[in-house]
Q: What sequence folds into this?
């Protein structure tokens, strides 16, 4: 086993590589740092912007769903108020007793019977004429002062 070794003879002194000093390394680090800080700030700003945008969109979706829920509840409340008003006619006597309204059944002379023959309505008794100098009695129901504001806030 033989090893072949070749050597080259160069004329002149041997070229040596210059050693890097610590000041050169610090200059390179400072330059890198000067370039990387603006990029880091820009990247952080972009990430923050995306995060805020996504939060704003999620809040917008939540507010829209809450507004829709409120509208549904208001619609249900209005429908229930209508149903209560319609059913209140069935419970008039119970409400008269509950609120102690001092209302009475009509007297027998105030009741008139109607007879139905086919599609025509025939009155059994002729109406009693009132004297001309008497004013007719107006019966009204008072619910208190009316407000112009919407009733949904005052129920």
A:
């Amino acid at each position: 086993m033989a090893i072949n070794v070749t050597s080259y003879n160069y004329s002149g002194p041997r070229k040596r590589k210059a050693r890097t000093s610590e000041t050169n390394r610090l200059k390179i680090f400072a330059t890198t740092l000067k370039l990387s800080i603006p990029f880091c700030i820009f990247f952080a700003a972009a990430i923050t912007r995306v995060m805020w945008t996504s939060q704003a969109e999620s809040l917008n979706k939540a507010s829209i769903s809450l507004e829709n829920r409120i509208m549904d509840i208001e619609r249900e409340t209005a429908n229930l108020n209508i149903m209560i008003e319609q059913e209140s006619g069935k419970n008039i006597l119970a409400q008269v007793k509950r609120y102690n309204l001092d209302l009475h059944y009509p007297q027998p002379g105030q009741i008139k019977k109607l007879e139905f023959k086919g599609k025509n309505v025939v009155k059994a008794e002729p109406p009693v004429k009132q004297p001309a100098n008497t004013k007719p009695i107006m019966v009204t129901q008072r619910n208190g002062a009316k407000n112009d504001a919407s009733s949904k806030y005052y129920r």
Observations:
- The longest strand covers residues 114-117.
- The first helix runs from residue 22 to 87.
